[in-house]
Design a protein that fits this description.
By secondary structure, the chain is α/β, with parallel strands linked by helices. The protein has helices at 11-14, 56-67, 93-105, 131-145, 174-187, 210-226, 237-245, 251-263, 269-281; strands spanning 2-9, 30-34, 37-40, 72-77, 110-117, 153-156, 191-194. Helix 2 packs across helix 6, helix 4 (131-145) crosses helix 5 (174-187) and helix 6 crosses helix 7.
């Protein structure tokens, strides 16, 4: 059975971490919904822009897979870079698209959780004052439309690197939005807050970098698995990352990697055939 998770929010949920900065994740028990099919996950998962990259969902799914050996996990990417909370209104395109994708995925999976990260675009002009009210309408509508009244919703905080440099300079009220996000998760049933404390950004000052996205995903998993808020960095983040990086790939995963290498021109066709033949003999 595929246990599916809906990814919602803006660019830091979609992921802008630089692909080459962290080891790739290849795991045949992690699927992503693309073109109406469950496919083995490759990053970027949420291809909302040509600059899409590493997101928190990869390490979330990898740790989920390590600790849940009986099932597969499916990711439903619906985040949209730069989107404000108003653009996620229940009568808007982004919300309706997410509902459509989730319902389609639910035909072949069990919707198990919702991952939410949004707020940078609302960190100015006093938008924090109406953030809670808007988010409540969105979350309640999600639960109603998907018939998921008790499904866990994991809500990530905004990075403390915001408001300082690059594109992040405009996020002058990120602390106030963080307070609303945390208050929401504390007050609403089956919602759990995850701190972004200590995470670092790309040089643009607004997007979480690749390694920090890996750490963020582990925090999201901890909140989901424990059904508790994660209010400080985990002490075992490095250990978890190493455990997942050191996992021996299955033959199916090895062949998938070689297929990617061939498709990207990293190896010749003859090398591809030879290497796949060797894998099949193992």
């Amino acid at each position: 059975m595929i246990k599916s998770f809906l990814m919602l929010g803006q660019s830091n949920m979609a992921g802008r971490g630089f692909i080459k900065e962290v080891p790739s994740i290849y795991n045949e028990r992690i699927q992503m919904l693309r073109n109406g099919k469950w496919q083995m996950m490759t990053e970027p998962i949420n291809y909302d822009r040509p600059v899409s990259g590493i997101s928190l969902a990869g390490s979330f799914a990898d740790e989920w897979s390590r600790q849940n050996q009986e099932d597969s996990i499916g990711l439903i990417p619906c985040a949209e870079g730069g989107s404000s909370l108003s653009e996620w209104s229940v009568d808007g395109v982004l919300f309706r698209h997410a509902i459509t994708e989730a319902k389609f995925a639910m035909q072949s999976s069990e919707l198990t959780g919702i991952l939410w990260h949004q707020g940078e675009s609302d960190s100015n002009n006093d938008n924090y004052k109406v953030y809670y009210e808007k988010l409540l309408l969105i979350i309640n509508s999600l639960r109603k439309e998907l018939n998921a009244p008790t499904i866990p919703i994991i809500i990530g905080g905004l990075g403390d690197f915001l408001g300082k440099e690059g594109f992040g300079k405009s996020c002058t009220e990120y602390n106030l939005v963080n307070q609303e996000l945390q208050k929401f998760a504390f007050e609403q049933d089956h919602c759990y807050f995850v701190t972004a404390s200590g995470l670092t950004s790309n040089p643009d000052g607004i997007h979480i970098d690749a390694l920090s996205q890996r750490r963020f995903g582990l925090r999201y998993f901890e909140a989901f698995s424990s059904r508790k808020h994660v209010l400080k960095p985990l002490t075992n983040e490095n250990e978890w990352l190493k455990l997942n990086q050191d996992r021996t790939h299955t033959n199916a995963e090895k062949i998938y990697i070689k297929t990617m290498d061939f498709a990207l021109g990293k190896i010749t066709y003859d090398e591809f055939v030879s290497q796949v033949t060797q894998i099949n003999k193992q």
